[in-house]
Amino acid sequence: MYAARRTGLKKEMFGYVRGGYARILERFTEQLMAEGVDVRTNQATRQVWNLPSGRVVVDLANAANEEFDRVILTTPSPVVYKLCP
Amino acid sequence: MKYGIIGGGILGMTLAHRLAQAGEQVTLIEAASQLGGLADAWQLGDVTWDRHYHVTLLSDMHWRGVLKELGLDQDMNWVETKTGFYTDGKLYSMSNNFEFLKFPPLGLIDKFRLGGTIFYASKVKDWKALEGIPVADWLRQLSGPRTFEKIWLPLLRAKLGENYTKTSASFI
Predict the structure, then answer these.
(1) Which A-chain residues 49-78 have CB contacts (< 8 A) with chain B?
(2) Do B50 and A22 touch (CB under 8 A)?
(3) Among candidates B131, B119, B122, B57, which has minimal Cα distance to A11?
(4) Strand ranges (E), chain B
(5) What is the pLDDT of residues B156-168, one digit of tens each?
(6) Cβ(A71)–Cβ(B28) under 8 Å?
(7) Would you say the ipTM is above 0.85?
(8) Is beta strand B76-80 parallel, antiparallel or unpaired with respect to A13-17?
(9) Do A75 and B3 touch (CB under 8 A)?
(10) pLDDT per position as a tens digit, B123-159
(11) Which of B1, B31, B36 lies at the smallest CB-CB distance from A21?
C-alpha cells in the first residue's frame, strides 16, 4: 500500500473518470466484445476439473459443460476452493 | 489456445483483453448480469454511483495504461488529495508536515512514535513475518495506545470495517 502511493511527487493526486466505473465498465465490455472475447454474463460456474488429456472442463449451471486448454479463476480464494474441490 | 476465464471483475476483464490482444481465443464467464465485480456501479435514485470505494493514483501505471487503451485517459480528472481528521468534535487538516506537527490531539512523543511507525513500516522488506501478527497489535505496540486510538483505529475501521480484527500487519 505504501509503495503504491509513492510517486516521487510532492502532491498526491487522485484521479477519476467522469461517469465513474459504470462508464469504464461499459467501455471495457464493448472493447472485449470488439476483440472477439466471448462474454457470458448470468453464467454461474458449478465446478472446474482437469481431464487426463490436460484440458479443463467447466461445468456451467445453466449451459452445457465446456472444455478449454487453459482456465484461469479470478474469483476470491474461498470460491476457487469450492469450484475446484 | 482456447482460454476460459472465470470471474468478470477487473482482473478477469484485463486478462481477457491481454489474451485477446495476443491472438488467443477467450471466453469470459461471469455469474452476475454484468461485468465489473467489485468495481460494479449501482443505481441510487436517479444517480449511478460506484458501489465500492476505489482510488486511482498517478503511480497506478498499469491501470492507467488500461484506461488509455480504452480511450478514457483523456477523461481522467486529477485532483490533489487532502487528508483530514475528525476527532473530539473538530475537523483537523493533516495534509502536510506542518499540520502534522500542529495536530492537537497528539503530544510530541505520540507524533514521534507515529512518524517512527510509518518510517519503520516503509522499510520492512519481509512481509511474511508480519502475516502472523494482527495489524492492531502491531500498530498499538509501535505507535502507543493513544496514537492507535486517535489515528490508526479510525483509519482501520474506515478501510476495513470490523474486519480489521482479522487483518494481519502486512496490510500496512
Answers:
(1) 56, 58, 60, 66-75
(2) yes
(3) B57
(4) 2-6, 25-29, 41-44, 47-50, 56-57, 76-80, 84-87, 90-93
(5) 998 899 999 999 9
(6) no
(7) yes
(8) antiparallel
(9) no
(10) 988 888 899 999 999 999 999 999 999 889 999 998 8
(11) B36
On whether any CB of chain A is under 8 Å from the CB of B101, the answer is no
**A34 in contact with chain B, both atoms CB, cutoff 8 A:** no
What would the pLDDT profile of B14-26 be if each residue is shown by its tens digit? Answer: 999 999 999 999 9
The DSSP bridge pattern shows strands B2-6 and B25-29 to be parallel
What letter represents residue B13's amino acid?
A: M
Q: Which residues pair with B80 in a beta bridge?
A: A13
Question: Inter-chain contact B31–A45, Cβ cutoff 8 Å?
Answer: yes
Rounded to two decimals, what is the model's pTM?
Answer: 0.75
Contact A55, B3 (CB under 8 A): no
3-class DSSP state of A57: strand
Please answer whether residues B91 and B83 qualify as being in contact, where contact means their C-beta atoms are separated by less than 8 angstroms: no
DSSP designation for B38: G
Q: Tell me whether residues B4 and A58 touch, CB distance under 8 A.
A: yes
Tell me if B77 and A70 make a contact (CB, 8 A cut-off): no
* Whole-number Å distance between alpha carbons of B4 and A68: 6
